[in-house]
Amino acid sequence: MIHVKNVRIVDGTGSPSFLGELLWEGDALLEVSSAPLGDLDAQEIDGEGRVACPGFIDAHRHCDLAALYDPDFGKVELAQGITTAVMGNCGLAPAPCTSALREELYDFLAPCLGDAPPDSFFPKVSDFMEALKKGKFPLNLGVLGATGAMTTASKGFGDVPFDRASRTQAEAYVRDAMEAGALGLSCGIMYTPECYSTLEDFAFLARVAGEYGGYLTSHIRGEGNSLAASVQEVVEIGRRAGVGVNVSHFKVTGLQNFGAGLERAIAVLEQARAQGQDVTADAYPYPAGSTTILSLVPPTVLEAAGGDTLGFLTTERGCRLLEQEVQKDFPHWDNMVYSIGWDRIRISSVIEERDRPLSGLSFAQAARQEGLSEAELFCRLLADNGSRVGVILMSMDPADVDRVLTLPYVSVISDSLYGGGDMPHPRLYGSFPKFLREYVREKGLLSLEEAVAKMTALPARRLGLGDRGVLAPGKKADVLLFDPASFTDRATFSEPKQLSAGLWKVFVNGREPEQLPGQVVSRS
Q: 285: closest CA among 391, 74, 433?
C-alpha cells in the first residue's frame, strides 16, 4: 500500500480542493480522506502541501506508431502529467490497412504519426490493439477506431462512393474495432478520402459504434468560413446516429472569422446541448495548429491532378495552377493561404537534408531565402519529400482560444503530432502544464479545480473511462503530485523540444512509471 499524507486534494470533479490523504493498494484507490488515516502498514509519502490530482487524460494524441516503436515514448508525456493518451484521432491511423495500400497510407500518415518499420502492418484494428497489449508502457493507452483508415481500406483514397460491398466491409472494420476495445470512432472529414463521404456515410458508421456504447469525435470539414456549418454537420451526424459527438480541436481560423465566426459555431453547439443532445468539444491551449502540407492543396487542384496530386504538383502546369488557386476564397473549403497568408504558415518537418534549414521558417521567409515564389517552394518540397512535410498554421486569435477553453463542456487536449522534424509544434511537449500556467496562474480565467477537471473527469466521461479521471475510492490510482507555482511548460515555437518541468511525482495504476505499469484501457 501507498499512503500519501499532507496534500491538497483536487479530485478532478471541479469541487473545492481540501487538505487530506490518499491511500491505495495495487492499482486502485482505497481512501481519499480529509481526515488523518493514522499510522498504516504502508509506504508513506509526505506531500508537504503539494497538490494531488488525477493523472491527465489526453484524449487526442497522434502517438499510434510512437507508442509501439519509439523507445523514448512516455518521456514527454509523463513530464507534463499525462497518464493516459488516446490515439486514432482525426480518422488517421495505421489500422485497418490493406497490403495494396500500405505504402500509400503510411506515407500519408507520416507527417502526423511518424515512421514505422517497413514490416509494420495491421490489417484490422484488433491486430493493432493486440500489438499494443503485448507491449509494456509507462502510461495508459486508449484507441479510437479511425474511419479515415476504414474508408481507405474499404474503397481506397479516391472520390468513390460507398457501394454495398465497401459499406459492408467498413461496417466489419467498425465492429472489429469496437469488439477489440476501442473507445469510439474518430473521423477526419477534411482529409482524403473522408472529404468525399456523405453525412449518412458517417452516421451509418457512428450508429454501428453506438451499438457498443461508443461515440464519434470529428475533425470537422472546415474551421474557417464554414465553421458553423461544419459543426452543424457533426451535430446532425450524432442526431441521426443516436450517439454522442465531440468536435475535435474546436477553433476558428482565418483573420476574417475571428470573434463572430466562433460565436456562430458556439451557438450551434449550445443549441444542440439545450435540446438534450450529447455534444462536447475539446481544444489545445495554443493559437496555432499543425497539419500536413497536402491539407493546403485546394480542391480544384486535387481535381485537376486526377488522383496523382504529388505527380501533378511537380509539373509546371500543376505549380502554376496551385499558385493561382491558393489566392482564391472557397466557400466550402478552408484556404489557409488565402485566409492567413504564407507568412503565417511555418515549415515544421521535412525528411530531406537539403530542406532541413527551412524548418521553423514561414513559407514567405523560406521562399525569399531560396529565391522562389511560395508556390514554387511548396512544389519543390513535395518533389523532395513527397507528402511528408509538416506545417504549423498561425491561424487563431488568442482571445478566441481563451473563449473556447473556458466553455464548461470543452476539455483540454494536445493534438500532438509525432512526425519528427527539427521544429515540432510545442504542444507535443507542454500542453497540459501550459494550460495550468496560463489559464490559472497568469490569466486567472479558471480556478485550479476547474482547470484540472478539464484534463481529468471531463475527458474520462467523454471517453467512457468510468474508473479514471477522479480521485475517489475504487478508481484507478493515476495520481500526480506537484507544486502549482512551479509546474510549468518550457516548449516554445522557437525552441519546441523542451520538456515540461516541476512535476514532483507521478503514479500510473498505483506504480511509478519506471515499472511500466501502463494498461490498454477500454470503456468501463
A: 433
For residue 361, what are the CA distances in angstroms to 16, 113, 388, 419? 45, 22, 17, 17
- The backbone torsions φ and ψ at residue 272, rounded to the nearest 5 degrees and listed phi first, read -65, -45
- CA gap 185, 241 in Å, rounded: 12
Please write the tens of the pLDDT for every residue from 81-125. 999 999 999 999 999 999 999 999 999 999 899 989 999 999 999
What are residue 443's phi and psi, to 5 degrees? -90, -20
| Distance in angstroms (rounded) separating the CA atoms of residues 195 and 185 | 16
| Alpha-carbon span 188 to 16, nearest angstrom | 38
CA dihedral 420, 424, 427, 429 (to 10 degrees): 70
Q: Which residues contact 363 (CB under 8 A, 6 or more apart)?
A: 342, 343, 345, 346, 347, 374, 377, 378
Q: Output the CA torsion 401→198→246→406 (10° steps).
A: 20
Residue 274 contacts residue 249 (beta carbons within 8 Å): no
Q: What share of the chain in percent tops pLDDT 90?
A: 94
> Residue 32 to residues 22, 474, 520: CA-CA distances in angstroms?
5, 10, 25
Instruction: Please tell me the number of Cα atoms within 13 Å of 101 on its side-chain side.
Output: 21
- Using a 10 angstrom Cβ sphere, with 0-12 exposed, 13-18 middle and 19 or more buried, the burial of residue 10 is buried
| pLDDT value of position 422 | 82
d(CA 73, CA 321) in angstroms, rounded, equals 41
Element (H, E) at 412: strand 410-412
Mean pLDDT of 149-174: 96
HSE toward the beta carbon, residue 482, CA cutoff 13 A: 28
**Phi, psi at 456, each rounded to 5°:** -135, -85
